[in-house]
Specification:
- The strands form five sheets. This protein has a five-stranded mixed β-sheet with strand order 5-4-3-6-7, with helices on both faces.
- The longest helix has 32 residues.
- Strand 6 and strand 7 form a beta hairpin.
- By secondary structure, the chain is an alpha/beta fold.
- It is built from ten helices and 14 strands.
């Protein structure tokens, strides 16, 4: 096969070349992304030596988008109606379409004469049992743990209950695998689809805050599989440095969150300032959107009114008609702070002007 792509392999192992990626005459088109589930299929393809090409699907917000301008979301949804990776099209089998990692792995094995699975019927179904263990248990639990610990928590959405819940369940499942490896070099005795299915999630357990230090058999198993050239090639699909890609994605999400918080703060401050109140000295009326204070002097005393808030009017009975009248209105948004405090008064806008009143002078603030 022609050599088409290179990967920045881990420092502890030799550089591997993706020898089976063949965009000119591929047997398989793989729709994938830099995820553990995506690695399940790309590693399987590499281990079986099937020529394939890759169409990268970016799904950071569960919405498919494509790097290739000639690829559309509609095309991907025809392959996988749920719009999730991985998915394949087998051009050597009438453009047969298939999705879901577990189903694809089994299909690729059978397509290759049953490789990577035991041939004995009992051993084969025991392998299928442990494959379902990963599909229904280990995979989803590790994915949720990594989400809450690695993605949600750094954004300020740390939920201790969820982290503790998935941490405990993940450890329970990992201990089961540790016990199995006490008797076997690989999970089924020989290297198989079960190892390929479980390894990606366990290899990055630290993203979920889990250390393998207390699971020595599992730790050695992770290192052994990591050293396989096909695994190195498979984890270079679709990008050569997945850890760096995840780091960049987290930085982008955190930056967006900070910008949203700044925008929300600016809008809150704008609402807090509001519009200045209105008042008439002669009548002693104050109006605002929330809370108003009206003060006036003249016949009948003062009146105060406010839309959507409290109002207070003060006046002095019997003062001469020609006396000075002062009207004052101040407003605040009760949704931001339902209690009027001296700091609220300082934060409010005021409008100042001089308006002549009958028999005297009125000031509006």
């Amino acid at each position: 096969m022609t050599k088409k792509a290179k990967t920045d392999a881990p420092q502890a192992v030799a550089v591997a070349t993706a020898t089976h990626i063949d965009p000119e005459e591929p047997e398989i088109t793989l729709y994938t992304a830099t995820t553990m589930t995506g690695w399940n299929v790309s590693i399987t393809l590499e281990e079986l030596g099937i020529p394939f090409t890759v169409k990268q699907v970016e799904v950071p917000r569960r919405a498919a988008s494509f790097e290739n301008e000639d690829v559309t979301a509609a095309e991907f949804l025809e392959v996988h109606p749920d719009g999730r990776i991985p998915a394949i099209v087998d051009h050597a089998n009438g453009d047969y379409k298939l999705c879901e990692a577990g189903a694809i792995m089994l299909y690729l094995s059978e397509r290759s004469g049953g490789k990577l699975l035991p041939q004995d019927i009992q051993a084969r179904h025991e392998a299928l049992q442990w494959l379902m263990f990963q599909v229904a248990g280990l995979g989803p639990i590790m994915a949720e743990l990594i989400f809450f610990n690695r993605i949600a928590a750094p954004q300020g959405d740390k939920i201790p209950f969820c982290i503790e819940r998935f941490s405990q369940e993940a450890l329970r499942l990992l201990k089961k695998l540790e016990r199995r490896l006490e008797e076997n070099e690989y999970l089924m005795g020989e290297y198989s689809l079960v190892d390929i299915a479980c390894w990606p999630y366990i290899s990055i357990a630290f993203w979920g805050g889990i250390s393998l230090a207390t699971l020595p058999k599992l730790q050695a198993w992770v290192a052994k599989i990591k050293a396989r050239e096909a695994v190195q090639r498979g984890t270079s699909v679709p990008t050569a440095n997945p850890v760096e890609e995840v780091r960049k994605e987290l930085q982008r999400i955190q930056k967006e969150k900070q910008e949203e918080e700044k925008k929300a703060q600016a809008e809150a401050e704008k609402k807090l300032k509001g519009k200045g109140g209105k008042g008439k000295g002669a009548a002693g009326r104050g109006t605002s959107l929330a809370t108003a204070v009206g003060m006036g002097a003249g016949k009948g005393g003062g009146k105060g009114s406010a839309k959507g808030g409290a109002a207070m009017g003060m006046g002095t009975m019997g003062m001469p008609r020609g006396a000075l009248g002062v009207g004052m209105g101040m407003g605040m948004n009760p949704m931001l702070n339902p209690v009027l405090t001296p700091l609220d008064l300082l934060a409010m806008n005021s409008m100042a002007g001089m308006t002549p009143m009958p028999g005297g002078m009125g000031f509006k603030f």
